[in-house]
Structure formats: structure tokens, C-alpha cells
Amino acid sequence: MNQIHRLAIVGGNHGNELTGVYLVKKFQQYPHLIHRASFETLSLLGNPKAITARTRYIDVDLNRCFDNKKLSDAKTSSYEELRAREIQQILQPQNQQNVDTIIDLHTTTANMGLCIILGNWHPLLLKLAADLSAINPLVKVYIHEQPKGSGFLRSLCNLGFAIEIGAVPQGILNAELFQQTEQLIYSVLDYFEDYNQGKNLPKNDLLTVYKSIGVIDYPRNEVGEIQAMIHPQLQFRDYEPLHPGDPMFITFTGEEILYQGNSTVYPIFINEAAYYEKGIAMHISEKELIKIS
After folding, report:
1. What is the rounded average pLDDT of the residues 96-106?
2. Cα(160)–Cα(233) distance, rounded to whole angstroms?
3. Which pLDDT belongs to residue 201?
4. For 112, which of 72, 166, 264, 288 could close a Cys bridge (C-beta 3.0–4.6 Å)?
5. What is the pLDDT of residues 117-169, one digit of tens each?
6. How far apart are CA 63 and CA 123, in angstroms?
7. In the prediction, which pLDDT does 72 show?
8. DSSP code of residue 217
9. Across-strand partners of 241?
10. Closest Cα to residue 140, out of 194, 102, 178, 180?
């Protein structure tokens, strides 16, 4: 890719994640903040009805509705599936320039700090992530591979990615994390502006990434009811090593359940509130130091 021509910032795909909602509202009120000379920047609220209702979604999770099958299904009837089509038409209009980059803003109840989630290993995204983590060492990079058109909003284009911030309770604004997210967005925009103008970008050849290798659910009984909680020694310890034999869950009667894997992993999205319904207690990842060519 030679240039970034159009970029979209989307907040409120989940209506109760207010950081993205109010950042987009701010950018819509003060568009000069996200204006850069070499490309067009759009700002968009993802799920207006859910935002009004202060809930994650109305019918189904909007951030799982951007797969090719759902977008092309003429029988689609749920609000979020119809909204996904509207968003696709905005970001990928017929006979016009599609957006090259999507920044999808999210918050999590897990203690993930400032996290960039990449759905692929595109060299430009890796270079961007390396630059952002060099500017702010608190930035973590999570590789959760998702093919184009797989359901997540960011999968609509090769340079789509998410910014995930936490821990933030659902329906709550945290001023410090709001400001950190805002500054991270400006750093992304500045990076693409410098990239378009051919300026010498920072050459950070090494990048630490957390690569997704799966998910783990809570222990459940035969009817699907949760039988244990995240162990206190694991709670809020995203990105920290979980060794075989370490406490992972604790039952309601106090019995510890240990991690039974064969190798050390790095949990992410630990005890995310929205994932209870998805059967996910945590994502698990491998930590790697990669060299960027």
C-alpha cells in the first residue's frame, strides 16, 4: 500500500463502552482534532440504539456481524445485522474510495491497560504498533488473527485494528484512560500522516507481542451454570505468566482449580464481563519478541 487515503474512527460498537462513544462525539464536534492533511478521517458511532439504551447491544453483538455471509444475507432482520450493512456502506461505498484503515475503540472490564489488537500480521500495522509501544511503553500488542470479513468490524480492511482499554466498568467513563486513549489515537493519526508524507519513521525493529492461542471457559455444570470464579491470584493479572499448576479458578466452596496446560501462557481479557455469555473466562496467549523487517 502506497498511501492512506481514508481512515475511520469508530466508537460505540458496544453501546455501554463509553470511552469510544464520547471520543467520537468529541471528534464530531471538533473535527480539527483528527484532521490530517494527507488523508480523510471519518468519525462514526457504531451502535446508536445500544448507546441510547446504555447496553452492549439490542439484538446481537454488532462486533460479530461483519462477516461476509451476514453482510450479504437479504433475510437479515436483527437491528445489529442491519446496522452492520449500513456501516459497511459508509466505510466501503460503491464506486468510491473505501477506507484504508479502521480504528475500532473499545473498553474492557479486564485489566488490559492500553492494548492494540491486530487481526493480522500486516507489516505496516506491526511497524505502527512498534512505534506506539516505543512512544508509550505501557502499550501492549495483542495479535488475534481474524481473516478479512470474519465478523469483527476491524476485519473489513487489512489495516483495521482495535484499541482496547481497561479496566473500565461497563457504562462508566474513566478520565485518565479516556485521555490516554485520545492521545493514542492522535499518535496513530500522526504516524499515518508521516507515512504518507514519506518522512523518516522511527525504526523500532523489535516488538513484543502476545499471540492468541485460544480461550478458556469457566468450569460449568451439565446445564451450563458457572461453578467457579477467577482465582484471586489471577484476577487483574493480564499479560502476566500463568504456569502449569498455578491457581486459575476457585469454586464457591473454596476449592482451587489449577492450570493444567503443558506450557506457560499469558492470559488476556481475564474475567471480562461481556464474555460470560460467550463462554470465555480469558484468552490465553504466547509472548513473543519479533523482529520487524
Report:
1. 95
2. 34
3. 74
4. 166
5. 999 999 999 999 999 998 899 999 999 998 777 899 999 999 999 999 999 99
6. 24
7. 81
8. P
9. none
10. 180
Q: Which residues pair with 160 in a beta bridge?
A: none
C-alpha cell at 15: 453501546
Say if CB 88 and CB 113 are below 8 A apart. Answer: no
**Domain hosting residue 264, numbered range:** 213-284
CA dist., res. 5 & res. 42, Å (int): 11
Helix (H) or strand (E) segment spanning residue 25: helix 18-29
Strands 101-107 and 150-151: unpaired
Question: What is the spatial distance between Cα 278 and Cα 293, in angstroms, rounded to a whole number?
Answer: 37
For β-strands 206-216 and 282-291, DSSP reports them as antiparallel
Q: Whose CA is closest to 199, among 88, 48, 68, 38?
A: 38
CA 252 to chain centroid? 31
pLDDT given for residue 200 in this prediction: 74
Task: Report the alpha-carbon angle 58-182-191, nearest 5.
Answer: 115
C-alpha cell at 122: 500486516
The CATH number for 272's domain is 2.20.25.160
Alpha carbon distances (Å) from 192 to 30, 60, 181, 185: 20, 33, 17, 11
Same domain, 101 and 188: yes
Does 291 fall in a domain? no
Among candidate residues 250, 251, 245, the one with its CA nearest the CA of residue 263 = 245
Which of 185, 204, 223 is the last residue before a domain boundary? 204
- How far apart, in whole angstroms, are the C-alpha atoms of residue 57 and residue 64? 11
CATH of the domain at 166: 3.40.630.10
SS3 215: strand
Residue 254 confidence class, pLDDT cut points 50, 70, 90? very high
Q: Which residues neighbour 194 within 8 Å (Cβ) at sequence distance 6 or greater?
A: 201
In this structure, the answer to whether residues 196 and 253 fall within a common structural domain is: no
How many structural domains does the chain have? 2
